Amino acid sequence: MAVGVFDSGLGGLTVLDAVARRLPEVPFVYFGDNAHAPYGTRDAEDVYHLTTEAVTRLFDSGCDLVILACNTASAAALRRMQESWIPEGKRVLGVFVPLIEALTERQWGDNSPPREVAVKHVALFATPATVASRAFQRELAFRAIGVDVEAQPCGGLVDAIEAGDEMLAEALVRSHVEALKRRMPHPQAAILGCTHYPLMEHAFQQALGSQVKVYSQADLVAESLADYLVRHPDMLGSGTQRMFLTTGDPTIVSDKASQFLHRRIEFRAA
């Protein structure tokens, strides 16, 4: 009954933590492609091939359902995977849709036509690859009309977070928010479009101001997954073992992950 969670590095651990709390009975298999992280500066073809390789490894670990807890992979690879790659009986879900459903005040799985929503000015903070894909805007257009999205590529932020350099990360957040505000002075909502960014949510909120509602993904994805599994209980795979897999050095990744989640995490080689 295992479910896979994939990320290019450590950011997806924020999603893993939330889904594991929400669904404690489900064994999750986490795959971090740390040897090739970050994905945010790679081209779409590269991201697609790396993502399919990682998801194949999770399928082989007994996961019929995989969550792409990587916004870059969700943006650059998911649609192509769903259209032509995913084997019969398997599912791969991304992390954009739960965010957009929350932003547009829709129930999970509501596929009614796009409509007017209260929020008109949205700031999107994401990796350069996610911004370039325009996947967030495309998914939003399926659900809402009349929403202006201003996207800010946050170069360097993932590297600073993974390196544990909080001062640099906070400085980068302020710089990226200032850059966005020059183009959109008064956003009503802000999307943290990378699973690393919840670790800097306070810095984003402080830089944006209390009047801006900040949406981050982990808890929204957890609730969406719980709802999905109620509707599709057959998607719980055959795996029974919780695992943390990495393409990087397991010792180094384990140490960084333990700092990330403030508890001991042991990775093994994928």
TrEMBL record:
One of its GO terms (molecular function) is glutamate racemase activity. Substrate binds at residues 7-8, 39-40, 71-72, 195-196. One of its GO terms (biological process) is peptidoglycan biosynthetic process. The active site is at residues 70, 194. It comes from the Bacteria. It catalyses: L-glutamate = D-glutamate. InterPro entries: Asp/Glu/hydantoin_racemase, Asp/Glu_race, Asp/Glu_racemase_AS_1, Glu_race. Pathway: Cell wall biogenesis; peptidoglycan biosynthesis. NCBIfam families: glut_race. Provides the (R)-glutamate required for cell wall biosynthesis. This is Glutamate racemase.
